[in-house]
Design brief:
By secondary structure, the chain is mainly β. It is 0% helix and 49% strand. The strands form two sheets. Strands 2, 4, 5, 6, 9, 10 and 11 form a seven-stranded mixed β-sheet that branches. Strands 1-3-8-7 form a four-stranded antiparallel β-sheet, with no helix packed on it.
């Protein structure tokens, strides 16, 4: 069974950078698609971006396309999410999730989830 562990959240000033890590154990990133979601208080969980086993990338964060960058290090079984310009509206709990092979944007399509990493954007 897959295990996913996020890290890298915390308090960040507006305009500051963010780099979240998702370490995946129990399976290889060559086989699994890993997505990042986020959930702000009182809102539904939304997909941000996803990287497939073969390396194709899909960006779902449609308000500001490509503001968040997903990447991975297969040798470390780690997927990253980063941005250089956080906004207060980015305050949320960020989750990584995994499923077989291909990316989907709905959370119901993912069976494996991390515990979440809280990001607070505030001065």
């Amino acid at each position: 069974q897959l295990r996913l562990v996020e890290s890298g959240g915390g308090l960040v000033q507006p305009g500051g950078p963010l780099r979240l890590s998702c370490v995946v154990s129990g399976g290889s990133l060559d086989v699994y698609a890993v997505a990042w979601f986020r959930q702000a208080a009182g809102k539904e969980r939304e997909a941000i971006s996803c990287i497939e086993g073969k390396g194709d990338i899909y960006n779902f964060e449609m308000r500001v396309p490509d503001r968040f960058i997903i990447s991975r290090d297969v040798s470390k079984n780690t997927v990253y999410l980063q941005t250089d310009n956080l906004e207060p509206e980015d305050t949320a709990v960020y989750y990584c999730a995994a499923r077989n092979h291909v990316c989907y944007h709905r959370q119901i399509d993912y069976a494996n989830w991390g515990q979440g990493s809280r990001v607070t954007v505030s001065s």
